[in-house]
Each structure stands twice: as C-alpha cells, then as structure tokens.
C-alpha cells in the first residue's frame, strides 16, 4: 500500500499520451499500453515525482469536489497495480 | 452479422515494426526474417523513415519497434530513432546487443529512446554463442544491457526458447534479474522463416513444454514485483491458435528494409498477396487500401469451423501464414486449433525432432 509521503513518478519509458484515434488517454510502457480513463489520467498526470501521494489526493479531492477517502482508495489501487508491473516508481 | 463486421472502416493501428535492415552479425536459426533477405542497397534512407514515422503517428500508431536484422548495423540509427521520437512515437529498440557501442547507446538515450529489448540465446555463455553462431556474443550482450540500465532506460530481456535451452528457463529469468531487467520475455520459437527451416532441430518434446509451462507459473509467483515475466507459448502444442498480430490488418504493421508494408513479418510467405511500398504510397493509404491488408481483414473470409465459432473475434481463425505453411491454403483454419480437420498434421510435425546441426541464418 502506497505511503502518504511517497512521491510517485512515471519512470523513463512510461509516458501518458493523448491519442484521439484510440479514444483518449493512453499510458505507454515497454511493449504494452493501457487505456486510461479520465480519472486515471488525472491521477497519472500528477505523478511527476514532486508531489506526495497525500498531496495528489488532496488536489484531486479539491479539483473534483469528491470525498477524500474514495479518491485515496481508487488512486492507491491504480498506483499499487502499476508499481507491481514496474511502471511506477516511488 | 459477420459480413457487417467487415464493412466497418479499419480501426487505427497501434504499433509499427520497422525492420531497418536485414543485416545482422548473428545467425540465429530461428530468425523471423524471411529466407530471402533484403540487401543493403535496397534499404530505405533515414529521410524516408522519418516520413513513415510521421505518417504512422498521424494514422494513430503509438509505438514503433526499431528492429531488423540488427538495427545497430545502420550507421544512421540515432538519426532514425530521433525522428521516431520527434513524431511522438514510443520508441523501442530491439537489438541483439552486438553491433551497438556504448557511445551509440548514450546517443540513443539523448535522442529520447524509450525502451530497449536485448535478446539472449541462452543463460549459458557457450550455448548462447553456439546458437547465435557468433563467438563472444554473450559477453557483448551483457555489456550493452549494463549500459542500458546505467543510463536509466528500461530493459527487457528476450529469451527465445527451444529444444536446446528449454531446460534453463529458470536460469534465463535469473540472468534477466541479474542484468536488472524490468521485464523478461520467455518466447517459444514460432515456426516461420528460418525457424520453419530448422523446425526439427528446434522442436521441444511435449514433456519439456509441459514442464516449462508449470515452471513459468511458479517463477511468476516467486518473482512477483521483482520482474515481469511474459511468455509466448509453443503453439504446435496448443489447443487454440494464437491471434496472429491481434488480427490481420487490425493492430499493427510491419515495414521491411526496402519499404514494403506487411500485415505481419511472415506475410510475404503467402503467395499472391500484393504489398504496397512506402516509396509509392503513404502509410495511411496502405493501411486502408492495400490489397494485402484487406485480404484477411475481419472475419468474412473465414469458413467453418471458424465462421460460427464463438472465438472468431478472439483469434480470427489463427495465423494465416501458418495456415498456408502447413495446409497450403491461407484461408484454412490454422491447423494448430484442435477443431481444425487438419489438426493431426500439427501433432505429426511436432513429433519430428532431431538433435541435428542448424541451418544458420546468413545473407
């Protein structure tokens, strides 16, 4: 489970891109790609290595006026999955 | 319903395999290149590749795989890679590790390369060099993989598995971890091109394959979070065929060194197909209109048992090149499928196994 003070970042070789021909946001990675829905894209855009996980959740909760617990759980699910796939670093 | 599905406009492709050259210092007997290798004087220049990448990106392509042959045989590799990255493409280098210096690797890093895949022929150095037909290959691969990681680029190790090395899958995964790869592909040989020519010398036994599949499952569990293990299963021993390149003309395209555009790397093995060249047509025109891309697009060409099969949108009747290679009919059900009336043929072919010397891939 990702810690509140961890600073997630997409490593070299993992990039978020917008591609209209494929219907929106896509996370490009070594020999694979993942379609990112609007929420996932908003989370990933903030994974620059500068913000802590807690700060990312705060920002999302404020921007989308959504409950913090819900956002925290969804974001942790997404980021933990990417860490296991070696597509996100802390 | 089937016919309706095929009148839809083709979806946008995702990936482009750029075979920059067929030249390669190695001689792997399972090389996926065709037996008739293209010559250096016929290769596209860097300016044409740049145009191809821009046209591909406009069409929706997101990933480009710079491959060969050995792409390091091109002196203008860095320029080519930079133009792919500048077109906005995720740029992947597929290399044998032989023929790219650490200096070139650094220049590729500066040019924005996203990912490197280095092949290994075995975890055992002597066996590696023997399979590659190149003395010292193992050591050079080691050195280049080290440089890739030192630069901070993600590394994938690709290990092609067959009769001579299938017992060392565990060691190959350990080697990939030692080289600090984030990902390892354990890819059983697919029998096209040079591999088809060497089939009997490469074919593992049923027992070896069953053991390897079990071993991969336990390796995945043991190495979870440490390295990602992807596997390509040996389809001569499968019950269902593989969905070749995700469906003909559906997800990817392949550009040969001289600019011919193919739905997959083996497509030229099917006689009678008309391929268009990037020298005469844009990538978009070729994707939409070239006869070869439309030959087996969708599911309308399928006959029974595929036409009414619930898996027809999953595997598209299997691989067209394999259907032709094994049955002589490119429209037939891939005989790897246990529902094919010709499936017994695959079982017979898989039983032909010899510990014989290889026909090495040479120009």
Report how far the terminal alpha carbons of chain B are from each other.
47 Å
- DSSP helix count of chain A? 3
H/E topology pattern of chain B: HEHEHEHEHHEHEHHHEEEHHHHH
| Class from secondary-structure proportions of chain B | alpha/beta
Structural class computed from helices and strand pairing of chain A = alpha+beta
Helix fraction bin of chain A: 40-55%
Largest inter-chain interface?
A: A-B, 18 and 24 residues
Average pLDDT figure of chain A? 93
Strand order of the largest sheet of chain A: 1-2-3
Q: Specify the oligomeric state.
A: heterodimer
Fraction of helical residues of chain B:
25-40%
Q: Roughly what is the average pLDDT of chain B, rounded to an integer?
A: 94
Rounded to an integer in angstroms, the radius of gyration calculated over CA atoms of chain B is 20 Å
Order of helices and strands of chain A: EEEHHH
Write up this protein.
The complex is a heterodimer of chains A (90) and B (363). Chain A is an alpha+beta fold and 90 residues long. Helices cover 40% and strands 17% of the residues of chain A. Chain A contains 3 helices and 3 strands; from the N terminus they run βββααα. Chain A has helices at residues 38-45, 53-63, 68-84; strands at 15-19, 24-29, 32-35. In chain A, strands 1-2-3 form a 3-stranded antiparallel β-sheet, covered by helices on one side. In chain A, β2 (24-29) and β3 (32-35) form a beta hairpin. In chain A, α2 crosses α3. Chain A is globular. With 363 residues, chain B is of the alpha/beta class. Helices cover 36% and strands 13% of the residues of chain B. Chain B contains 15 helices and 9 strands. Chain B has a 9-stranded mixed β-sheet with strand order 7-6-5-4-3-2-1-8-9. In chain B, α3 (77-86) links the parallel β2 (63-67) and β3. In chain B, α2 runs parallel beside α3. Chain B is globular and about 55 Å long. Chain B starts with a helix and ends in a 13-residue tail after the last helix. The model of chain B is unreliable at 1-7 (pLDDT under 50).
């Amino acid at each position: 489970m990702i810690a509140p003070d961890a600073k997630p970042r997409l490593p070299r070789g993992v990039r978020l891109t917008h591609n209209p021909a494929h219907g929106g946001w896509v996370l490009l990675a070594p020999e694979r790609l993942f379609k990112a829905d609007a929420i996932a894209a908003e989370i990933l855009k903030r994974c620059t290595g500068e913000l802590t996980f807690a700060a990312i959740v705060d920002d999302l909760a404020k921007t989308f006026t959504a409950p913090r617990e819900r956002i925290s759980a969804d974001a942790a699910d997404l980021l933990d999955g990417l860490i296991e796939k070696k597509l996100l670093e802390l | 319903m089937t016919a309706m599905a095929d009148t839809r406009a083709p979806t946008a492709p995702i990936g482009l395999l750029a075979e920059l050259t067929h030249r390669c210092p190695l001689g792997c007997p399972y090389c996926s290149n065709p037996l008739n290798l293209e010559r250096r004087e016929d290769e596209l220049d860097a300016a044409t590749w740049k145009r191809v990448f821009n046209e591909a990106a406009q069409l929706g392509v997101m990933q480009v795989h710079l491959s060969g042959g050995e792409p390091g045989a091109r002196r203008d590799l860095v320029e080519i890679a930079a133009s792919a990255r500048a077109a906005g493409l995720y740029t992947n280098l597929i290399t044998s590790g032989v023929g790219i210096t650490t200096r070139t690797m650094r220049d590729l890093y500066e040019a924005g390369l996203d990912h490197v895949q280095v092949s290994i022929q075995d975890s055992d150095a002597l066996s590696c060099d023997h399979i590659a037909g190149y003395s010292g290959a193992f050591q050079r691969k080691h050195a280049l993989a080290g440089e890739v990681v030192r630069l901070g680029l993600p590394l994938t190790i690709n290990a092609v598995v067959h009769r001579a090395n299938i017992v060392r899958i565990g060691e190959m995964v350990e080697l990939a971890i030692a080289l600090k790869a984030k990902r390892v592909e354990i890819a059983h040989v697919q029998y096209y091109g040079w591999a088809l020519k060497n089939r009997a010398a490469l074919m593992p036994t049923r027992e070896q394959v069953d053991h390897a599949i079990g071993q991969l499952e336990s390796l995945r569990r043991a190495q979870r979070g440490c390295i990602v293990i992807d596997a390509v299963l040996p389809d001569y021993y499968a019950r269902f065929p593989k969905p070749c390149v995700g469906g003909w003309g559906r997800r990817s395209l392949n550009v040969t060194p001289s600019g011919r555009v193919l739905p997959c790397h083996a497509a030229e093995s099917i006689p009678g197909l008309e391929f268009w060249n990037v020298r005469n047509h844009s990538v978009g025109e070729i994707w939409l209109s070239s006869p070869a891309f439309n030959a087996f697009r969708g599911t309308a060409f399928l006959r029974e048992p595929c036409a009414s099969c619930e898996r027809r949108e999953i595997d598209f009747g299997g691989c067209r090149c394999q259907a032709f290679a094994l049955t002589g009919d490119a429209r037939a059900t891939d005989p790897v499928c246990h529902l094919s009336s010709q499936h017994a043929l695959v079982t017979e072919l898989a039983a032909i196994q010899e510990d014989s010397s290889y026909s090495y891939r040479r120009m």
